[in-house]
Amino acid sequence: MFCRQWVAQLRGAGREFERRGARVALVTPATPEETREFCSGLRFVCLSDPLREAYQAFGIRRGGLGSVVLHPENLRRGMRAIVEGHRQGRAAGDVWQLPGAFVIDGEGRFRYAHYARRSSDNPPVCELLAALDG
Known about the structure:
globular
């Protein structure tokens, strides 16, 4: 599932995506109800994929203990979030599903693809925007 902090960065860049004529869609492995709750207040399209069909179609793999729970970068980011006052919310969907991010142009061509190596591996929003700039 997406890191809430990353989704907040996407939300903050919403006008930049719109300015470039882009539409943002988030796909979660959670149920429709969990997805609605997670995406409340977002101006993006949010899609629920509890069977992980989109993840499989895009070749996004599932992780294991080393990439989801025990990866040093995940632990570092988790500790930093705690220090900053954030707490882990209730897990939704397939907790082993790794994230991915794609930029697809209006003609259906992939301009950017990011396949996560660990659960906290989301691309910088500036990379997504740069891919839109061509």
